[in-house]
Amino acid sequence: MADTTKLGFLVLADISGYTAFVTATELEHGPPIIAALLEAVIGRIAPPLDVFQIEGDAVFALGVDGTVVPPASLLDVLRAGFDGFRARQRELEADDSCTCRVCRGVSDLRLKIIGHHGSYLEQTIGGRAQAVGSDVILAHRLLKNGVSRSDDYALFTRPALERMGIDPASLELSERTEHYEHFGDVPCFVLSTAVADSSCVEATGTHDAQAALS
User: Fold this and answer.
1) Is 130 in contact with 123 (CB distance < 8 Å)?
2) What 3-state DSSP class applies to 73?
3) pLDDT tens digits, residue range 4-42?
4) Which of 14, 37, 61, 207 qualifies as a cystine partner to 72, CB 3.0-4.6 A?
5) What total of structural domains would you count in the chain?
6) Alpha helices in 18-167, H assignment, sequence order
7) Domain of 201?
């Protein structure tokens, strides 16, 4: 199979607090709970996104141009991912069959989702598919950001919003700049799902209103 370069959305859904959660809890319970939460997210975002890799505490998914239609509906897809995460989290919290620290600490976990749009090369090495390119690297770098929140949130790059045709002001996105070596300053826009849940965001565009992460 020939290597191919594609354009599309690059999405990372990452469970914050994973390292502390797994290292400080029972091995038999920690990883299965993380797996259950990731499966809940995957079940809501794929399709239309294609889950490309599971990276420990994160799901790396791709949406080649033409698969997320209209592009603004990516917000609906991500909203469903948050909903799936929270629903499974509540189920695990309600299960009182185990009183170990891991089972009682599920409520401390949070979900953050990175949304970027750019190019990537799909290639196969040793029989394993890989997505490579500067946009892939940037999307992963954005997982390590300066956002300080106690709730779930989504972080979008300007190329992602431009592809979606979304005006950041219409969703009351918080603008910030992240800086990374080799990339320089990267404008980003953050949507707190707590804000979206409480306000339901009165957006001006039809797609915006339908797709708020509420």
Assistant:
1) yes
2) helix
3) 789 999 999 999 876 666 665 566 777 888 999 999 999
4) 207
5) 1
6) 18-23, 30-45, 74-94, 101-104, 134-141, 158-164
7) 4-211
